[in-house]
Known about the structure:
- This is Short-chain dehydrogenase.
- Helix content is 49%, strand content 17%.
- The chain contains ten helices and 13 strands.
- The protein starts with a strand and ends with a helix.
- 43% of the residues are buried.
- The model has no long low-confidence stretch (mean pLDDT 94).
- Bound molecules: NADP nicotinamide-adenine-dinucleotide phosphate.
Amino acid sequence: MVITGASSGIGRAAAREFAGRGDRLVLAARCPATLAQVRDECRAAGAAVLAVPVDVTTPGAVAELADAAVAEFGDIDVWVHTAAVMAYGRFDELPAPVFEQVVRTDLLAAAEVARVALRRFRAVSAGTLILTGSVLGHITAPYMSGYAAAKWGLQGLARTLQQEARETPGVRICLINPGSVDTPIYRQAANYLGRVGRPPPPIATARRAARAIVHCADHPRREVSIGRLNVVMRFGFTVLPGLYDVLVGPLMRLAGLSNQPVASHDGTVFAPNPDGEAVRGGWLPGLPQLVRAVSGATATAGSAVLRRLR
Ligand SMILES: NC(=O)c1ccc[n+]([C@@H]2O[C@H](COP(=O)([O-])OP(=O)(O)OC[C@H]3O[C@@H](n4cnc5c(N)ncnc54)[C@H](OP(=O)(O)O)[C@@H]3O)[C@@H](O)[C@H]2O)c1
């Protein structure tokens, strides 16, 4: 299994899931230090792992990664591509190089991964490519123009590749389309909006998305949607575009942006930020917070009942 984007969020959660099954893994992302950490986690879980620091937007880098994978393990059965960056800002206020690097990373590098992987898969009539799109490949929201443009492009690319793959039995292409997932991508994003972005509810865990990826590796499917509201949003966007466009701006400002102010910055668009990399983004409460919240609520309710009884 090759995983590009393995150092954080969904890709890192997928690496853990595959490692738990003892799969042989080639992990790639830009930051060598975080990648080494993920490699050690996966080895501890029982997997044989090769970590290869790679910027997927560097010409020739993806082909070199494939060569390294084949040299280490003999062949590539599954390639999971989750690497992506994001940028918030009105289109006319976003610096052009930021917009272009988002498209380069999220669309053109995914195309390069597909090109390298499919050439190898076709030669042996076997292999599964799992690309990661987004619900924003079917709908749009303000302030995410580069990301939405790239994910719409990826949607078109994936469908085309699926049609072409009908001529190559044994080669499968899957597209995973998450809605909101609790990963660091929202804080890692470039921001020219003044407010930190956040995932609008309902929010899935990175583990849930990772399990969908693992399931696709074993049972390839054309498209997998993760998120209970994805269908509703797609319906509104397609069937009621006028109403959708009236509502999406206010809803985005309410649910898709936090009140936390932030100075303009390029996030991880051009370079990684190891301090921000993790499986979880902290948008969902973890077990300790849940226990604290439940015990706090129980204590408050208990003392209210006692006061009434007295
Ligand atoms: N989280 C969500 O709510 C959500 C929703 C819909 C779709 N998605 C999609 O799910 C996928 C995973 O996102 P995530 O939320 O898990 O994001 P994340 O936590 O920010 O992880 C992104 C990964 O991509 C790597 N990466 C970024 N640029 C790269 C480059 N140029 N070369 C190589 N690796 C690069 C990052 O590592 P380095 O920075 O070290 O390179 C990191 O490992 C993306 O395709 C995203 O669009 C996420």
